[in-house]
Give the backbone structure.
Amino acid sequence: MTDLHELLTVIDDLSPDELEQVYRRVVQRRSPSYWLVPGSNLKAIQEIMRPVYEETATMSDEEIDSAIDEALSEVRRERKSASHNRD
């Protein structure tokens, strides 16, 4: 990777069109991806997650971590199974 000074020097030498491309790339990279969930969906997500929140209120940190690990393993198994089914 080039150092920052070299990168800035190269940017200074860009044509207006090239500079516009760099600008668009920077804007795209800086835009927060967490705003992609529409507000109308947040209520539905909250309703779906309510039982989980209620259940975790009585669980220890270790139990919560274990449940998360189990859920991640299940998702990985499903993805692996789905990718094998497509072949």
Observations:
- Residues 61-86 form the longest helix (26 residues).
- The mean pLDDT is 87.
- DSSP finds four helices and no strands in the chain.
